[in-house]
Backbone:
């Protein structure tokens, strides 16, 4: 008899959902987390006021050079003295990049994974996103359509808490929303002018995974409304934003069916060729380095797009010489992210005697219009813009000394609207992560080697996005428009990695079926970003949640029917 | 209203266990600024120059000034604990360049200049930085002093009205 009904590898964004749904279906669930435990009362730092943060909350420069060159280089804004414990040390978790390429693998190993540090932007994919591969002959066709996943978006939104506004846009479907954070007066003006000048474009409030009207279910988990503090990167004692630590793991725990083991690094998955089933997971303790095996009836990989692919590749056997469930040779390939590096900002007049109160978690969003409402584009797919319009703080950057200089920081200020593009990256089999042939980490696992580059479509798209951004600011009457030359963000830098075990209809060309279930191994599911057959341009976490919940309930159904 | 001279007179400090006495405005003895410890990074003159510049940039008004909230001590700790060797060297060079430029504009030692002279000297350096020939590193130094000031409780709460827990979002409030 197996130790557990289900094992979930990874406690982050998707792993929390897998665990919650499986545990609520009455299954005994083990969650394996490779990092240490995060205890909110001890490890969240969101209540430390600015004056108690050492050295302006800056991580010592020598410490950055020694421990965080990749992490800090990728997300300097998020790595502070009081948040650095949420990020891995690069020297302890190395990886390599193919010559001439760069890949930013930005992450944290601990309870909740990156659901603690995410930017909380939460958008549904639209019907077009599930149809484009087939229509354009790119990658493989998604084996699901929007209608298949829509009820599961409802399911996860209701539980997570998404602040957003119903807009009736076909390409960015509405969901189960709590009240949105209203647009600022400058954003309202920008919206009116842009939508008048470009009838196919919309400026809407960002949709963010923050509670603004807590439900009974959310309150029962100790969650309450967002206090508008802008302290999310430090954790949240109000549990107002969605993370697995704040929401799904507590929900799983209250069933009495959850076992959560920390410092458990997966080395490989055991596979029984006789039954064609996974039987267990071999792990090494990150601290003691003792190894052991946990057995299970069903396995969910939620270790992250990179780590789940690596675990499959590490689990080669006679039956699967290229890695578990990898008869298609697609594991580790088609690695995608979103691409940024194009945008613009400009001053918008008329609001100098107004200001804002509170520090909201999201600004504006301009949903994709390219190849949706406008069809004159020299590229496939499209991008959304994220940004905002707020008063410009002096920040010490103005002339003057003495009382005048001091008071300039609270004087009437101009407002600036800024927008930046998040573009879709097309899948390409040569964009991949592989296992280093000889180099091992401290626990004996091969380190990752990345070989990812952008193609012409991404380069052309972002160049056009910059032009569009400037045109919209001009149409809005902005002045002092600033727009740096396009400088594409390195692959991985948006921290939206996906696609390394894509789903598809054909086992010869895809790893998973439409339920995130391995074509080759019936009791193996992969529901982190690995399953994505295309990246769309929307922030993907909400989609990972929905597919995880759907897959977990499907697995539970199959187990109840004796199908696994 | 309290005068700058009073502000400085009210500052009492020990640096490394001994009082640092230096002239300021030719009339006022000072100072030092670390609340409970000696300077770890700055030399005596560097600290005195930084202190006087911080005070001139962000004086006590109806709200605390840079010296009230110990900005020089904060920056001393920042340089000792956060900065690497390259940043420290650049920071020292900026302070030295500023000291020299202020001395030229004050017609002598900046630290010995009377308050009005010192104020005019810094105003001239500042004007050059935003429209003429900037003193190397001055704008970065000014931004750092300002950032440090607004990161203190006096700067954040008393001067800027920073609220730890806003609790609500008003997207278009009266100023």
Residues:
């Amino acid at each position: 008899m197996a130790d557990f009904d289900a094992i979930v590898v990874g406690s982050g964004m998707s792993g929390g959902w897998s665990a919650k749904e499986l545990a609520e279906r009455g299954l005994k669930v083990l969650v394996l987390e490779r990092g240490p435990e995060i205890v909110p009362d001890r490890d969240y730092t969101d209540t430390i006021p600015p004056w108690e943060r050492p050295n302006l909350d800056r991580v010592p420069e020598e410490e950055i050079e020694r421990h965080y060159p990749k992490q800090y280089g990728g997300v300097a804004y998020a790595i502070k003295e009081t948040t650095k414990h949420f990020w891995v040390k690069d020297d302890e978790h190395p990886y390599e990049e193919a010559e001439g390429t760069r890949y930013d693998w930005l992450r944290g190993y601990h309870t909740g994974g990156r659901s603690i540090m995410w930017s909380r932007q939460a958008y549904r994919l639209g019907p077009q996103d599930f149809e484009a591969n087939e229509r354009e002959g790119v990658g493989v066709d998604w084996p699901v359509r929007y209608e298949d996943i829509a009820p599961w978006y409802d399911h996860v939104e209701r539980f997570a808490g998404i602040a957003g506004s119903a807009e009736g846009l076909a390409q960015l479907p509405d969901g189960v929303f709590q009240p949105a954070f209203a647009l600022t007066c400058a954003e309202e003006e920008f919206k009116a002018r842009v939508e008048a000048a470009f009838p196919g474009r919309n400026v809407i409030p960002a949709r963010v995974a923050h509670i603004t009207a807590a439900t009974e279910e959310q309150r029962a988990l100790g969650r309450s409304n967002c206090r508008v503090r802008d302290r999310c990167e430090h954790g949240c004692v109000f549990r107002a934003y969605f993370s697995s630590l704040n929401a799904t793991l507590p929900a799983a725990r209250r069933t009495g069916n959850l076992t959560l083991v920390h410092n458990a690094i997966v080395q490989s998955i055991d596979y029984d060729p006789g039954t064609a089933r996974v039987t267990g997971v071999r792990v090494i303790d990150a601290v003691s380095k003792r190894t052991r095996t946990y057995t299970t009836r069903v396995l969910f990989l939620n270790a992250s797009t990179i780590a789940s692919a690596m675990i499959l590749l590490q689990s080669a056997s006679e039956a699967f010489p290229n890695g578990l469930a990898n008869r298609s040779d697609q594991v580790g390939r088609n690695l995608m992210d979103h691409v940024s590096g194009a945008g613009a900002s400009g001053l918008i007049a008329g609001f100098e005697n107004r200001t804002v109160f509170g520090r909201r978690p999201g600004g504006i969003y301009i949903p994709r219009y390219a190849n949706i409402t406008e069809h004159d584009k020299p590229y496939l797919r499209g991008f959304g813009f994220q940004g905002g319009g707020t008063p410009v703080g002096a920040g010490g950057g103005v002339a003057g000394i003495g009382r005048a200089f001091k008071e300039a920081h609270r004087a009437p200020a101009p407002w600036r609207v800024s927008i930046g593009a998040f573009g879709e990256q097309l899948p390409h089999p040569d964009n991949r992560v592989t296992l280093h042939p000889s180099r091992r980490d401290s626990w004996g696992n091969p380190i990752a080697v990345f070989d990812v580059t952008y193609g012409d479509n991404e380069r052309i798209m972002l160049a056009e996005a910059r032009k569009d951004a400037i045109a919209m600011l001009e149409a809005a009457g902005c002045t002092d428009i600033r727009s740096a030359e396009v400088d594409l963000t390195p692959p991985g830098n948006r921290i939206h990695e996906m696609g390394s075990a894509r789903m598809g209809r054909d086992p010869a060309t895809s790893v998973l079926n439409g339920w995130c279930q391995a074509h080759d191994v019936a009791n193996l599911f992969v529901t982190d970003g690995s399953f994505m057959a295309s990246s769309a341009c929307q922030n993907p976490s909400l989609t990972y949640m929905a597919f995880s919940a759907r897959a977990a309930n499907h697995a539970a159904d199959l187990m109840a029917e004796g199908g696994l | 209203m309290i005068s700058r001279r009073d502000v400085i007179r009210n500052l009492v400090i020990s640096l490394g266990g001994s009082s640092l006495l230096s002239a300021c405005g030719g009339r006022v003895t000072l100072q030092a600024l670390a609340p409970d410890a000696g300077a770890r990074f700055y030399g005596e003159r560097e600290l005195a120059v930084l202190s006087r510049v911080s005070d001139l940039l962000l004086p006590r008004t109806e709200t605390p000034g840079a010296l009230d909230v110990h900005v020089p001590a904060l920056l001393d700790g920042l340089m000792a604990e956060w900065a690497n060797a390259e940043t420290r060297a650049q920071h020292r060079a900026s302070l030295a360049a500023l000291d020299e430029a202020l001395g030229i504009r004050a017609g002598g030692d900046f630290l010995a200049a009377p308050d009005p002279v010192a104020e005019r000297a810094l105003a001239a350096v500042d004007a050059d930085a935003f429209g003429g020939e900037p003193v190397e590193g001055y704008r970065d130094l000014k931004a750092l002093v300002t950032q440090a000031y607004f990161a203190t409780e006096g700067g954040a709460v008393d001067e800027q009205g920073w609220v730890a827990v806003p609790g609500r979002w008003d997207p278009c409030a009266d100023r």
User: Anything to note?
Assistant: The beta strands of chain B are 23-24, 28-29, 170-174. Chain B touches chain A through 51 residues (CB under 8 Å). Residues 1-35 of chain B have pLDDT under 50 and may be disordered.
